[in-house]
Design brief:
binds adenosine monophosphate; about 15% strand; ATP-dependent RNA helicase DeaD; about 575 residues; globular
């Protein structure tokens, strides 16, 4: 099956898919479409975002859905609001020509009353986050009696966010006769357990492993000291003209600093991180999707909900700790059959980290040289011609009579002059600027290096000043400081358990949430090697103490006590 037209999908679906520019099914689509169309077994599919999995499960289901019934037949559960909106949008696109099919997205952080109203439209398809779906079940706003298909999308992510109980409730509240499809990037114990308990003799498919590295991405690294990093970044951007890229940073602070630096230097860039309100993040994502900005500086978590296919470059301004994150970040480019470039800025003392990433991912990362001013201008000239020869529309009427007599110039002279005008600003910038001193990776171990620690402390201190809010932005508003309304808890898990701040936020949210209850204020979160501390509003003290011991994180028991 090399073309969509070779699938047995209905003409309405093929037409919509064709309009989206899809020609051939992706690997996962090749495997799932015929399976779902013809088999009644449950399914476990190992696949990451970006593989085309939304179409993989929704196209065959759309093909089989009963558009004469106004009952919910198809439910998709996914971890975040952004993903939920994305999936709903994709399904709406795929069902564009199926006039009786309605899809509704339901997710937290948005008015439940409005969502209840939109359910009155009687959609056949619901895409939701587990918490909100449970709230709606409790309010009797969802009737799941006719569900045929249930998709758990990013099941590993939902479980690590603490949605285990919600998933189990939903799985048991839906008809036993349904077909369940579990999609996950990784297969861990929790995912196995859920599939064992709730899926019947599932068929398994896998599209590459988590560490599968796309072959069409070229990986480069550039060594630059802490003080040179921003200038080095500017040179990398300038020597790769016409780029549409995401620059990944480690902290919100760093993200904002890098974005500010780029904006001050005249780039169409902006920042995306958890210190922004949801509305601000939506605006930035929209600007980036519309290409009003072509460089997005983002934290890993904030960039998760962004679905953009045509990135030319991914730049790692700072290396992530986890090699898997490196693969995920880089995999944002090189999509939809295009080539991609991943460029990492590496401090001399980070040689061990680079080695770890190379050996864990088996990616070949080639050293590049930070471009000289001369190299930048050369690349820019290339970019001008690339633009000139690219297909483009005529944006305005042009009267040849406006062209003055040019017979006094040769062709070369004219091109030189035009290029001088076009590249003047850059040329002036680089004219008297020294090229960066070439740096070598040091053989010294990185982890204990003072510089590294100082950078980290600096960022951590500032992040704390701003109040530790979730990257996901469920908590927005003014930065918080430690105050008397907070109780400080000792928490038995730490970095060794792969606990991240976002996990702690989710755990606290879960332990303190309840019907009709306002959200608990969360203060400082400090994750240490073996344990952690967090602060929660006093009125929620008992909820934390009583609920946390009954929850698990990655299969581990949790314990919270009031800290001395
Ligand atoms: P997903 O893994 O579902 O997040 O899909 C990743 C991206 O690939 C989405 O933006 C889809 O629109 C796009 N996509 C999915 N299937 C195809 C296909 N067969 N051909 C081209 N693009 C696709």
């Amino acid at each position: 099956m090399n073309l969509f037209t070779e699938t047995n999908l209905s003409p309405d679906i093929l037409k919509a898919v064709g309009e989206l520019g899809y020609e051939s099914p992706t690997e996962i689509q090749k495997q799932t479409i015929p399976f779902i169309l013809s088999d009644i077994r449950d399914l476990i599919a190992l696949a990451q975002t970006g593989t085309g999995k939304t179409a993989a499960f929704s196209l065959p289901i759309l093909d089989m859905i009963d558009d004469t019934s106004r009952k919910i037949q198809f439910l998709v559960l996914c971890p975040t609001r952004e993903l939920c909106l994305q999936i709903a949008k994709d399904i709406k696109n795929y069902s564009k020509y199926m006039q009786n099919i309605k899809t509704t997205a339901v997710y937290g952080g948005s008015s439940i009353m409005e969502q209840i109203r939109s359910l009155k439209d009687k959609p056949q398809i619901i895409v939701g986050t587990p918490g909100r779906v449970i709230d709606l079940i409790n309010r009797k706003a969802l009737d799941f009696s006719a569900i045929h298909w249930l998709v758990l999308d990013e099941a590993d992510e939902m479980l690590s966010m603490g949605f285990k109980d919600e998933l189990e409730t939903i799985l048991s509240e839906t008809p036993e006769t349904k077909q369940t499809f579990l999609f996950s990037a990784t297969m861990n114990k929790e995912v196995e357990r859920i599939s064992k308990n709730y899926l019947t003799k599932p068929h398994r498919i896998s599209v590459g492993s988590i560490n599968e590295v796309k072959k069409n991405i070229k990986h480069e690294y550039y060594v630059a000291g802490y003080r040179q990093k921003k200038e080095a970044l500017k040179r990398l951007i300038d020597s790769n003209p016409n780029q549409y890229s995401i620059i990944f940073c480690r902290t919100r602070m760093e993200t904002q600093e890098v974005a500010d630096f780029l904006m001050q230097n005249g780039y169409a860039a902006d920042a995306l991180h958890g210190d922004l309100s949801q509305a601000q993040r939506d605006t930035v994502m929209k600007k980036f999707r519309l290409k009003n900005i072509d460089i997005l500086v983002a934290t890993d978590v904030a960039a998760r909900g962004l679905d953009v296919n045509s990135l030319t470059h991914v730049i790692h301004f700072s290396l992530p700790d986890d090699p898997e994150v490196f693969v995920h970040r880089s995999g944002r480019t090189g999509r939809a059959g295009k080539d991609g470039i991943s460029m990492a800025l590496i401090k001399p003392e980070e040689s061990r980290k680079l080695k770890q990433i190379k050996s864990a991912t088996k990616i070949e990362i080639i050293e590049g040289k930070i471009p000289t001013g001369e190299a930048v201008i050369k690349a820019q000239v290339g970019g001008v011609f690339e633009n000139l020869f690219a297909e483009h529309e005529d944006y305005f009427e042009f009267d040849d009579a406006l062209i003055p007599d040019l017979s006094a110039f040769t062709k070369e002279e004219l091109v030189h002059r035009l290029l001088q005008v076009q590249l003047k600003e850059l040329a002036v910038y680089y004219k008297d600027r020294h090229d960066l001193l070439e740096q070598k990776l040091s053989s010294r171990d990185d982890d204990g290096s003072r510089r590294d620690r100082r950078d980290r402390d600096r960022d951590r201190g500032r992040d704390r000043d701003r109040g530790d809010r979730g990257e996901r932005g469920e908590r927005t508003g003014k930065p918080r400081r430690r105050n008397e309304n907070m109780v400080r808890f000792f928490f038995n898990l730490g970095k060794k358990d792969q606990l991240k701040k976002l996990d702690v936020l989710e755990i606290i949210n879960k332990a303190t949430s309840g019907k009709g209850k306002k959200r608990a204020e969360i203060g400082d979160i400090e994750i240490l090697e073996k344990f952690s501390f967090f602060e929660v509003e006093k009125t929620f003290k008992d909820n934390v103490l009583s609920n946390i011991p009954s929850m698990k994180f990655k299969g581990k028991d949790m314990r919270a006590e009031v800290a001395n």
